[in-house]
Amino acid sequence: MSTIDMTTIHTTVQEITHSYAYQATELVQMLWQVQEKLSYIPTAAIDSFAEILKLPRAYVAGVAGFYSFFHDSPRGQYDIYFSDNIIEHLQGKPQLMDYLLQKLKVEIGKPRADGRVTIDNTACIGMSDQGPAMLVNGYTVTQLTQAKLDKIAELIETQTPLSHWPTEFFQVQDNIQHKHILLGEPLEEGLAIRVMLARGTDATLAEIEKSGLRGCGGAGFKTATKWAFCRNTHADERYVVCNADEGEPGTFKDRVLLQSYADLVFEGMTVCARIIGAHQGFLYLRGEYRYLLQPLEAVLAKRREQGLLGEQILGNPNFSFDIKIHLGAGAYVCGAELALIESLEGKRGVPRNRPPFPVTQGYLNKPTVVNNVETFALAARIAVYGGDGFAALGTKQSKGTKLLSISGDCLRPGIYEFPFGVSVREVLEACGAQDTQAVQISGAAGTCLSAKEFDRKIAFEDVATGGSVMIFNRQRDLLEVVRNFAHFFVHESCGFCTPCRVGTSLLKNLVEKVYTGHGTADDLKDMSHISQILKTASHCGLGQTASNHIADTLKKFPEVYRKRLLVEADFEPAFDLDSALEEARQITGRRDELAYL
Amino acid sequence: MQPEEQTITLDGQKIPFQPGQTIMDAALAAKIYIPHLCYHPEFKPHGSCRLCTVMVNGRYESACTMPAAAGQEILNNTKELNENRRALTQMLFVEGNHICPGCPKTGNCQLQAVAYYVGMLSSHYQHFYPYRDLDPSHPDYVIDFNRCILCELCVRASRDVDKKNIFAISGRGIKAHLIINSPSGKLEDTDFAVGDKAAFVCPVGAILRKRTRYTTPIGERLYDQQSIRIVGDSQQLHAGATKYGRK
């Protein structure tokens, strides 16, 4: 791509900042606009933003430098990311990616000389049930095969615009395999709001309290308590935020809700807004779900027309509420509410310190409810049907149902809605998993269960989960799984605190050392100790859980590591003298015996 | 009038606190040392170095960000916490290039002093050996990014006290790094000046004043004489702060 002249860039930034009313809180959205126009964010654009928005230049550069989808150098006209989750590895992603790299004659991460295409890796894009998958200029292409890649390569070489690509390439299946109360009967649009208005806000909150609904993102905080805290905090403004940044590898349930149940989600947000007294809501949509942006905007527009959003909702003069969609830009950490709020304010997604909690000081330091997509959808149902039916399902501490995103070694991957308390074994049977070696519950940050634990139950009091279930059969090498997760956390650590920033890299290096056959018993001890430090000393939930996969597998599957260890040595230095000499050999051209150790 | 004093218990010892104080504030006021690098009493707590991680009623929290509350039972000087502190210090050493004998800050460096305090005898982990260019462009200061530990004290000082916003962080994860607020990225193109608060707060040898680096001979410097546990933070002594710690 040719260099764009400075005046054009400045004009572009002027137009963009104007369309966002010069609000610095929209910086991430504005950076997206620049990148969509220019394929990257040039230095001159950073300068222009700083000048126009009166922000320090380094602040703007720091924000742009945080998100993995923002680039400071030109990308290809077709910018491709392969989803790099372990499930897609098992589905043949590495071979397919190599195939396309060779076919298009392009090096990973570098634009081709003619500027046509860039191919890179990205963390799980929420398509494990229909992978391998990729993003092309932000749009999702699923079920990749060599034949499909041949066609894609041709479309790229002929410079066919994305809008002329076969539409079936971009189809994303819901794959709903098992329905219960949430995914069952559709709800008439606006019904939850009508029932709430008839019942009253106090009584509606009481129903949510009675239902026992807890946050479905994984943390499980009581929803009614959160809403009540927010409502009872004295303030002139409050906000509702829907966390649609499901970045946990292997999860995709929110994708399905947003694709086919968006009204229910927005309805839940509107009910919440009325209860807590908020006028503005946000849907924080992960950048990987860019393909959902327009359809969701269309749902919002329709709801405004129906009088279900905007001023005077359903004719109530003192009930106004609207929802804005904020597009994330590739940062797993933003799924944590304390980072999400920073990102929503147009900043780097570094998690805030707590206390204070968002319910008292959240977005713009105003009381804010942040809930998961699934939580809002369930809240809308409870607003209609009351809390009793919901509370009758599940276990003592975990009421109702849970959506599970199931992928990996099973016959029927997809979405399963089960009442809490379902055992892992029942889940495995339902999806047709056989000869299962291990189940990774709740994503890379979650728990790795061995066959001995398959009678454990999905519930907050036993195995808590945000919904990701990844299945590995006995043919799989679990160290590949560990490696994949270790690389994931290096990529996704925000870099704020020492243990997570440095510890994730140390762990990755040690896993690689073991994987390549250089590990010793001492290295395993170090891995345990570093894991413990991450868990106990990290600033946020990401760091505190980033070593779970290593701690779990070291404990439950020690042979995965031990069979690769050097048995003759307690210790092998990480520094390999012979491979260090290779550079000298290359420079001098020496290949004689004396040039080797 | 003397209302009943509010107290927390730190390693079995009852210490008083004022409302609004963090555990760190209360500990330091009682002359109890909790290792730290990113904390500075004059700035908003940050909680990034994690050295001050203590156990509060059975939960791990950073002492510098956790508000003190009556009745808290806090463990600080325990074998486990100190071993973790040693490992965290080692992590900071291998992440950058901290070659103490070749660093002008030696003897006045908090990272080095904390390493002494936690009994660090080697860096243990594999060194990353980053390669980050120096910035010697400013007439009075040189910045060695290889020694930055991302405590953001300069970021906070320049933003909150000097009102200049000269420093910021960019990148993410292990690639997070300090950047300078000028189109060239060089310090000479900013209005950074000798009197700035940000010029005094670096706990390590990342921001160094030129031509004064060896005025005090090695061996006669702050931490050559006494432990950081006794003498406190170097940057505060340089900045003239005497809130605590000076014997």
UniProtKB/TrEMBL annotation, chain A:
Q: Which domain of life is it from?
A: Bacteria
In what residue span(s) does the NADH-ubiquinone oxidoreductase 51kDa subunit iron-sulphur binding domain sit?
479-524
Cofactor(s) annotated in UniProt: FMN
Mind listing the UniProt keywords for this protein, alphabetically? 4Fe-4S, Iron, Iron-sulfur, Metal-binding
What's the protein name? NADH-quinone oxidoreductase subunit F
Q: Which family does it belong to?
A: Belongs to the complex I 51 kDa subunit family.
The Swiss-Prot or TrEMBL record annotates one GO molecular function as: FMN binding
Automatic annotation (TrEMBL), chain B:
Q: Which InterPro entries match?
A: 2Fe-2S_ferredoxin-like_sf, 2Fe-2S_ferredoxin-type, NAD-red_Hydgase_HoxS_gsu, NADH_UbQ_OxRdtase_75kDa_su_CS, NADH_UbQ_OxRdtase_Gsu_4Fe4S-bd
Boundaries of every 4Fe-4S His(Cys)3-ligated-type domain copy: 80-119
**What Pfam families does its record include?**
Fer2_4, Fer4_15, NADH-G_4Fe-4S_3
Query: Domain 2Fe-2S ferredoxin-type spans what residues?
Result: 4-80
Return the CDD domains for the record.
Answer: fer2
Q: Which SMART domains match?
A: NADH-G_4Fe-4S_3
Domain of life, per lineage: Bacteria
Assembly mode = Composed of 13 different subunits. Subunits NuoCD, E, F, and G constitute the peripheral sector of the complex.
Q: What is this protein called?
A: NADH-quinone oxidoreductase subunit G
In its UniProt entry, the species of origin is given as Thioploca ingrica
